[in-house]
Amino acid sequence: MALLAVLAGSGCRSKSEVYVIEDQGKTTWRATLDKKMDTPSEQWAHACKTRDKGFRKKADRQMLYLFRRWPNSKEAPRAARARADMLFERKKWKDAFNAYQYLISNYSGQMSNYDSALERQFQVAVKVMNRRRLRWILGGYRAPEYAIEYFEEVIRNGPQWERAPEAQFMIGKCSQDAKDYELAISAYGVLGYRYPESDYAEEAAWQQIDCLVKLRKQFPANSDVLDRTLVATTVYLSSFPSSKRRSDIIQMRNELYEVKAGRVFNEAAFYAKVPKEPEAAIIYYEKMIEEYPKSQLVPDAEERIAELRAFLALPIKARTPNAPRSKPLPFTKDPLNAES
């Protein structure tokens, strides 16, 4: 009987009561003292009126209240976009970037003019990159590395956006300006891999070479950096054969070619100075001639090989003449230093 009573009671409810879904999100304490409307359309009209009067900070709170209170309403994406635009106009760069990110993350399918939101985010990233901190102390300083995460977010939001290659280039530029050349080289390499046909691909390849040149100045004895520079110049010439920098690249490659040849030549010269290692010196001179046949050091290497071969043709005693015997040290006291 109790079960029948429960079933009977549940059957008394109307269909409208059973299937009503109330769209209610969380509010914000910032809008506690603001006037609140009963519907999202009324709240939107009220917030727009406040904005048009010039009270953008107050309108910001009202827009925020709207899309938090009614997140699934048709006015919510418009309110989120309006709030982001107002923050941008007030030059609240970080807050504006986050507001556009909220809009893209939650209303990408409902918002209009998606590219304009990416454009605003890109502009904020450039502002962060060029911002001077602590201006009152000797004019301040720049910290472009802080903008890297902003440009990365822009690329994630629009990997095929028309300015995505430029954003990737800016990531490399930020690291390069911060003198983190390895990160800059990686960022420029990503640009060449993802966007090889973009207008920034050639400039990125050149900046890679420039970063490697600066690394060579920091670590002149590092052979790995030298080899990477040669590889980068080779890739540049093969990818951009008609570049205006072609002659500069070829000249740089010739200089690097001579540097590598000179290192092998110096190794051979070292062994040539060792009395019992003339054969090793000949091996290194021949290696230099084989690996770097166009080097300017080839004639010197051939001359050294001929001298060493002539030396090896001599009898063993003639190769190592007896050195003049040194005088034995006196065991008597030096009369100048003798004690009186």
From TrEMBL:
Signal peptide: none
Residue ranges of domain Outer membrane lipoprotein BamD-like in the record: 169-313
Keyword line: Signal
Domain of life: Bacteria
Protein known as: Outer membrane lipoprotein BamD-like domain-containing protein
Native source organism of the sequence: Pontiella desulfatans
Lineage, highest ranks first: Bacteria, Pseudomonadati, Kiritimatiellota, Kiritimatiellia, Kiritimatiellales
